[in-house]
Design goal:
mainly alpha
Length: 261
């Protein structure tokens, strides 16, 4: 990577919530529905506000999206183009020109931009909608590269079960709030560990038995999470079909305008 590219990357570490959402949608749709990409402003707005594969769910107006697209254009992350099939302007991303991500890394970043912090298992499943990630070992390999480039954060070592991954494209003010939220619970836990009295061994035994009794509950929670994810996938497919129909409707309208119908 040359010096200009490095400078560009350093300047694009901070992205606002709207910038992250719009950029994430552009890359996601380029992966999942290439036949409708680049996106019209209406399709991009619909993608930003869809209820599946988004956290939090937003309600941006077309003016919000247009304004943010202009900001991304200034950063060199997006552009408006005209296609041969219609006169309406469409929006495309230039993420690959600004960052040296592998395709799996790009899918991982996009998933984090659209949903935020999540565990590795769900991250792999969701990112695989865009690019196949064959195993957890492959996921760790891609995450390790992203960590070295300082584009993601992890709550612990990648080999540890249950850790959470998050992107590092927050604004400076968001980082300050995030750091404050993380420091306070840590100090509180430390104070509790110092002042807590020693319990008798019988209490420890009772706690161990209680942990064993909680195992079936954990299994039920795991099954519930799996069903919840499957439902989210179905909702996502429905939203994709809805977006396709809307894009097709806009193209037909453009064609009618050109033909004077």
């Amino acid at each position: 990577m040359d010096e200009a590219q490095n400078d560009g990357q350093n300047k694009i570490q901070d992205l606002s919530k709207k910038q992250r959402r719009i950029l994430g949608v552009l890359v996601e749709k380029a992966f999942t529905t290439p036949e409708y990409y680049p996106l019209t402003l209406k399709a991009l707005t619909t993608g930003c506000n869809q209820k599946s594969n988004r956290d939090p769910v937003m309600n941006y107006s077309e003016d919000d999206v247009q304004e943010t697209v202009e900001e991304l254009k200034t950063l060199g992350l997006a552009a408006t183009v005209h296609t041969e099939s219609g006169r309406a302007e469409r929006v495309r991303h230039y993420v690959r020109k600004k960052f040296e991500f592998s395709e799996p890394q790009l899918a991982i970043i996009v998933e984090l931009l659209l949903r935020g912090r999540q565990q590795m298992g769900e991250l792999r499943s969701r990112a695989s909608r865009m690019v196949p990630i064959e195993s957890q070992d492959r996921l760790r390999q891609e995450l390790s590269g992203l960590m070295q480039m300082k584009y993601i954060d992890a709550s612990g070592p990648l080999e540890k079960r249950g850790i959470e991954i998050d992107h590092a494209f927050y604004t400076s003010s968001e980082r300050k709030r995030k750091s404050a939220q993380e420091v306070l619970p840590a100090d509180f836990d430390e104070e509790i560990s110092v002042t807590a009295p020693e319990f008798p061994s019988s209490s420890k035994t009772s706690q161990s038995a209680q942990d064993q009794n909680n195992l079936p509950l954990e299994n039920l929670r795991s099954q519930f999470d799996s069903l919840k994810y499957e439902n989210q996938q179905l909702q996502s497919e429905f939203e994709e079909i809805k977006t396709h129909l809307q894009s097709l409707t806009h193209e037909v309208q453009d064609l009618k305008t050109q033909l004077g119908v």
